Amino acid sequence: MQVTAKDIADILGGEVVGDPSTIITGPGKIEEAVAGNISFLSNPKYTPHIYTTEASAVLVNKDFIPEQEVNATLIKVDDVYASLGVLLQQFGQVNHGFSGVSDQAVVDPTARIGDNVSIAAGVVIAANVVLEDGVVIYPQVYVGRGSIVGKNTTLHSGVKIMYGCTLGANCIIWCNTVIGSDGFGFSPDENRKYTKIPQIGDVVIEDDVEIGANCAIDRATMGSTIIRQGVKLDNLIQIAHNVEVGAHTVMAGQAGIAGSAKIGKHVVVGGQVAIAGHLTIAEGAMIQGNSAVGGNISEENSKWYGFPAIEYRNYLKSYAHFRRLPDMSDKLRAMEKELLALKKSLSSDEA
User: Can you list the domains of the chain with their CATH numbers?
Assistant: First the structure.
């Protein structure tokens, strides 16, 4: 792809400061870019690089004022990070290298295939599956019987969609994720042996959801496990049976949500967060990484941290005291020694 700085400014609604005819061939990190690259500056700690970068153009916020000469052409935009997303979509449009239905794919004759569907070699499509228009399925994907994959959804290599699951439009599911595996349901008997409880529900994933690699989203015991519109899940996330994740919630890697938890809209879940089963998390809550949530969060837009998680500001205050415990312990021992010495002195005087 080869465009000019003006072309990019027109796409982003930005303003060119410098040569609008500067040729751009691709993106690059500001500290590593070469001629022809376009980079970006959104984090102030990278500001020194804008004066030394070899990038031909750099995206900056409209309020950016250089403190010395900048060799690169600047493209000033309202929001660098949002503009970067648009820009990378332009450069990231790649041909997936296959089209139509491969003769090395196994497609059940009862499956319904929409227009412009691409199915690679090694894919297995089971009975009564519906693949809507524009679906792209990479090698070695399995789509179980009766499942529905919505328009323009992409399933990357190794994804497994088990029977009876529904995926909305414009979803992206990354490699080796499993959707619709059995929920973790077992009943102990009097001898503490476990009998499997059949998991007869399904998984429903709404439109515009992206799920990272190696995630597991379990089918419901009854009813549905639901991932609402616009949810973004990182790699290595576990969503247990009958969980509901609210619209436009984001979760970082290794988060785990136990069964029947209800996560509200616009929630932010950090990496390695654990949320216990049957809890309700209010809309807009933010949970710091490595926290464990053991109770309901009822206050919207609140912040939580710790193990177990408590309100964020209280955690920081508590942690400040916690860090001082060794010093406080040393002072307490010294005070005990002084008191003991004083007691001995007083006893000696009385005698």
Answer: 3-91 (3.40.1390.10), 106-313 (2.160.10.10)
Q: What is the pLDDT of residues 259-313, one digit of tens each?
A: 999 999 999 999 999 999 999 999 999 999 999 999 999 999 999 988 777 677 7
278 burial (CB, 10 Å; 0-12 / 13-18 / 19+) is exposed
Q: Which of 1, 8, 58, 3 is nearest to 29 (CA)?
A: 58
Whole-model pTM: value is: 0.80
| For residue 91, pLDDT beyond 80 | no
| Residues involved in catalysis | 241
199-204 own/partner pairs: CB under 8 Å, 24+ apart? 199/241, 201/225, 201/241, 201/242, 202/164, 202/165, 202/166, 203/165, 203/166, 203/179, 203/227, 204/165, 204/166
- List strand residue ranges (DSSP E) for 232-272, in order: 232-233, 238-239, 244-245, 250-251, 256-257, 262-263, 268-269
